[in-house]
Amino acid sequence: MAEGPPAVRGGVGPSVLLVDDDDDVARVFTRVLERAGMSVQRARNGSEAVAMIRGGTPFQAAVVDLVLPGIGGLEVVKAIRAGHPACRIVAVTGLSEPALEAPLRTAGADVFLVKPVDLDVLLKAIGVRAD
Q1: Phi-psi region at 84: left, alpha or beta (left = phi > 0; alpha = psi -120 to 50)
Q2: CA dist., res. 26 & res. 19, Å (int)
Q3: At what angle do helices 119-126 and 23-35 cross, to 10 degrees?
Q4: Does residue 129 surpass a pLDDT of 80?
Q5: Which CATH number fits domain 15-126: 3.90.198.10, 1.20.1740.10, 3.40.50.2300, 2.30.30.60?
Q6: Sequence ranges of the domains in the chain
Q7: Which H helix or E strand runs over 54?
């Protein structure tokens, strides 16, 4: 994988959709992504995420938890891929179940990570260099 673009500070860079119902995880991911120069928009559940996707907001990347209230992560991945074909999609889950990876890749996820996620690995999965 290429190193990706250089990090831009201030959270004004490429837009990332973060879909996670866990406030603690979302807080950590947001802090790391913003420090890497990304602009983060968070959805707390699948329905909120799908509404944002259908609302036309362009996202360069998305980090999607699989287990969400309402619409699940797999459906969110499908919606992102349908609405934003160039978006880099990173699926994350606390479930250590290798059988989940194939359906996610079929749905359009580019990367599958199991929590706890190494934050440098998350940045590389999105395509941002960690400084």
Answers
A1: beta
A2: 8
A3: 60
A4: no
A5: 3.40.50.2300
A6: 15-126
A7: helix 46-54
Nearest partner of 19 among 85, 65, 87, 81, judged by Cα: 65
Burial 68-83 (b: 16+ CB within 10 A, else e): beebebbbbbbbbbeb
Q: 130: which 2 tokens? A: 């960690």
> Which residues in the chain belong to E strands, given as ranges?
15-19, 39-43, 61-65, 88-93, 111-114
pLDDT digits (tens, 9 = 90+) for 43-87: 999 999 999 999 888 899 999 999 999 999 999 999 999 999 999
Dihedral of CA 20/116/86/4: which sign?
Answer: positive
Reported as a single tens digit per residue, the pLDDT across 23-43 is 999 999 999 999 999 999 999
- DSSP strands (E only) in 8-123: 15-19, 39-43, 61-65, 88-93, 111-114
The two tokens of residue 109 are 């996820």
- Is pTM, for the whole model, over 0.85? yes
Q: Counting every residue, how long is the chain?
A: 131
